[in-house]
Predict the 3D structure of the following.
Amino acid sequence: MEVLRAYSNRSDLLEQLRKVVAELSERGLRRSARSRRGVEAVSRSHRLHDRFSREDLQAMVDLYREGATSEQVAEKFGVSSRSVRRLANRVAHSGRPPVY
């Protein structure tokens, strides 16, 4: 808050901000230092081969090769469209099954 006071041209809003922060603290809605969304961060692997079985990875590649868009495949499996394209490219360039 002191930083806000030192750098803000709107010192009139500082008291309102303090009230809001106090109210949130009373309600237990204060954000965790580990999360920007107000929920505790959950650690999980970002690597596809740690999150999906070999069959699921192959199904992603097959759907993409059969003409589904990367966005459609991504939505079905809960991953990003970039992950789908990256997986398909790795399989296409390596000629191996989608486990890396």
Observations:
- The chain has two domains: 1-43, 48-94.
- The two ends are 48 Å apart (CA to CA).
- The chain has six helices and no strands.
